[in-house]
Amino acid sequence: MFNVRGLNVAYGQSQVLHGIDMSVAQGEIVAVVGRNGMGKSTLMKSLIGVLPSRAGEISVEGIDVAGMPSHARVKRGLAYVPQGRQIFGTMTVRENIETGLVVTGKSDIPDEIYSLFPILAEFDKRRGGNLSGGQQQQLAIARALASDPKILLLDEPTEGIQPSIIKDIAVVLKEIRQLRNLTIVVCEQVLSFVLDVADRILVMENGRIVHQDQRKNVDEAAIAAYLAV
Amino acid sequence: MLFGYSFGDLGSILVMQGFAGLILFSVFVLMALGLAIIFGQMGVINMAHGEFMILGAYMTFLCSNLFQTYLPGLFGLYFFVAMAIAFVVAGALGLATEWLLIRHLYARPLDTLLATWGLSLIMQQAFRSIFGAREVGVELPSWMMGSLTFGSIDVQINGLFVMGLTLIITGVVALLMFRSRWGLQVRAVVTNRTMSGAVGIDTRRIDRLTFGLGCGIAGVAGSAFTMIGSTSPSAGQLYIVDTFLVVVFGGAQSLLGTIASAFTISQSQSTLEFFTSGSNAKVTTLLIVIGLLMLRPQGLFVLKVRK
Known about the structure:
Strand order of the largest sheet of chain B: 1-2
Helix content of chain A: 25-40%
CATH topology of chain A: Rossmann fold
Radius of gyration of chain A: 17 Å
Distance between the termini of chain A: 34 Å
Structural class of chain A: alpha/beta
Strand content of chain B: under 5%
Number of strands of chain A: 10
Number of strands of chain B: 2
Number of helices of chain B: 11
Shape of chain A: globular
Oligomer: heterodimer
CATH topology of chain B: ABC transporter involved in vitamin B12 uptake, BtuC
Helix content of chain B: over 70%
Largest sheet of chain A: 6 strands, mixed
CATH architecture of chain A: 3-Layer(aba) Sandwich
CATH architecture of chain B: Orthogonal Bundle
Order of helices and strands of chain B: HHHHEEHHHHHHH
CATH class of chain A: Alpha Beta
C-alpha cells in the first residue's frame, strides 16, 4: 500500500539517495537500519516532503505524493515523528496534539490517544518544552497519530531516551499497529529495539538499500556487522 | 516646587500627558499588533505597514464625506461603517500583496524589506495622486466631540473612544491567537515552520491569512488615527519606526510584551514632550530602549522552556 520507486534526493550537487525502492504492506512494521550518514534521516525527510526529491515516486494507496507539499501528504495519510522530537515547545501538550488534528477537521482529541499515553493526559496543560525527553517523544507520536494516518514514519524514536522508555515505545508501536492496522516505517540504530518491533529489516548504506530480510530469518550478527563502525 | 510648577499642577500635568500618551499608546498597539503577528509568523518586516494604516485613514475620510453628502441623518454612525470598510480594504490589499509579492520572497528576508519599502513608496504616490498632497481632516460626529471633566483635568471623548476600540481589538486578537484554530496554527508555524507543515498545517495559507489580518488591523488603526492626527500621504512613515521599536522592545512573539512596550514608549514620549522638546523626548526614549535592550536582547517578555 506504500510504495517508493527510484527515489533520488540530493543536497545541492551531492546526491544522497540513489534510487531507493521499497514497498510496505498494510499493517507491516519495517525498520530501516544503517550507520550515521547513510541517508536514513534524508529518506524519512523526503518521504514526508520536508526535503524535496529529485526523482522517483512515493505512492500511498496508488496515489503519487512525491510532488506534494508536506501538509498535503499528511492529508493523504502520512504522518511523521522527526528526529529530536521537534514538538512545539511554547505550546501546551493539548495544543501540540491539536496541531495534528488540523487536517482531519475534527476538534476533539480521540480518547484513544490519551489511553495510549496516559502521561499526556496528566500533563495536558503543561508546556511541551517543559516535558522530559521520553515524554516529548510520546507527545510527538501522539501528535502524529492525531492526524489519523495510514502510514507512520518515525526517525530515530529512541535517541536520547532511557532504556525502560524505549521498551514502552516498542510496546506502544505494536499496540497502535494492532488497533488501527497501521503501517509503520521506522529508522533506527538501536538494534535491540529494531529486533523487538520490526517485521522486516532493511539495511541502508551510502544512500542505497543493500540488504533486506524478514525479522524471523534475520541473522542478528549479520545486521550488527552492518551497524558496526 | 519643581521645574517652576507646584505639586498640584505637576499631578494634573502628569495625568493629562499620561492621557495623551494613552491615545498614542492605542495607535501604537493597533499598529504593532499587525506588525508583530506578521513579523512573528513569517519574519517579514512590513515596511509598508504605515501606508496600510493611512489607507484605513483615507477610507475613513471617504466614508465621512459620503455620509455627509448622501446620508447626513446617519452621520453619527459613520465611524463604525468606516472601521469595517478600512479593515476590509486594507486586509484585501494585504492578501493581494502577500500573493503577488511577499510569497515569492520568503527565503530572502532582506529582499522583503526592500520590496515592502518599494510598496510603501508606491502607495504614498498613489495616495498623492488620488487624494492630493494636502492633509485632509475628518469631521467627527457630534457625540465624539468635546470632553468630560474630572476635577482639574479634561478628558477628550474621542480619546476614550479610541482606547475602548483598542481594548476590544486587542481582546479579539488575543482570543483568535489563543482560542481559535487559526491561532493554534499561527503559533505552531511561529515555533517551527518545517515541522508545522509535516504535521499537516498548510503554512502558505496561514501566512496569507496572517498577512491579511495584520494589514486589516493596520487599517482599523488608521480609522483611529484620523481622530488624533491629520491624514496625509506620508503620515504613515512617521509611525513605522516607532512601531517597529515597540515590536522589538516587546519581544516579537509576545502579545503581552507588545502591549507593555507600547505603553512604556508612548508614556515616556508623551510625558517627556511636555517638560523638554519633542526631539529631546525622542532621544531620551530611544536611549532608554537601547539601554533595556542591552540588558534583555530578547525583548521584555519571553517564555522560558527547555531548549
